[in-house]
Amino acid sequence: MLILSATKGSNLSLAQSFAAEAKSKNLSVETISLPELQLPLYDSLNQAGGTSEGLLKLAQALRDHKSLVICAPEYNGSIPPVVSNAIAWLSVSTEDFRALFNGRPVALASHSGGGGQKVLLAMRQQLSHLGCTVLGREVLATSQKAANPEAISALVSQLSALESLP
Fold it and tell me: Residues 94, 100: contact at Cβ < 8 Å?
């Protein structure tokens, strides 16, 4: 199970909660903080510059794991730039871009000061467009409302069950 965090703060803590739950179920898990990959800003002018070490790490992690959890805050009512940037780079720099997403089970979570529902909806729409199977349940936390541990456990269990399918 690959768990991505769009921040090094609250969403990384949320990602670590998912990782702890997966480990408690003896599942293989890897957590990546997207900001730590230091991906350059994608634009068509720097596309020819090749792939960065961080992008190679991210693409390999996607190949190594069958399921994905994305923890991201709401930025101006939508997806954080670091998530959009990573997807943009993957789409132009990997030969198997569609294989990275097609049929992949994905769980969505957000710890957000902006409410979080809009980012969950935007990620659901984009990842569905890319061919992912986005789970119906999601986790939403704010500074006033902690993440529901039962929801985290249920999502990890559901992803684990989907991973075992052929």
Answer: yes
In this predicted structure, what is the pLDDT of residue 50? 59
Determine the Cα–Cα distance for residues 84 and 86; give it in Å rounded to an integer.
Answer: 6
Run of H or E residues at 93: helix 81-93
Fold observed for domain 2-163: Rossmann fold (3.40.50)
Mean pLDDT of the chain: 94
Residues with Cβ within 8 Å of 157's Cβ and at least 6 positions away in sequence, in order, are: 25
Domain locations along the chain: 2-163
**pLDDT per position as a tens digit, 42-81:** 987 776 655 789 999 999 999 999 999 999 999 999 999 9
CA distance linking residue 78 with residue 110, whole number of Å = 11
Question: Are the C-beta atoms of 14 and 27 separated by less than 8 Å?
Answer: no
Is residue 80 within 8 Å of 6, Cβ to Cβ?
Answer: yes
- The answer to whether the predicted template modeling score (pTM) of the entire model surpasses 0.85 is yes
SS3 30: strand
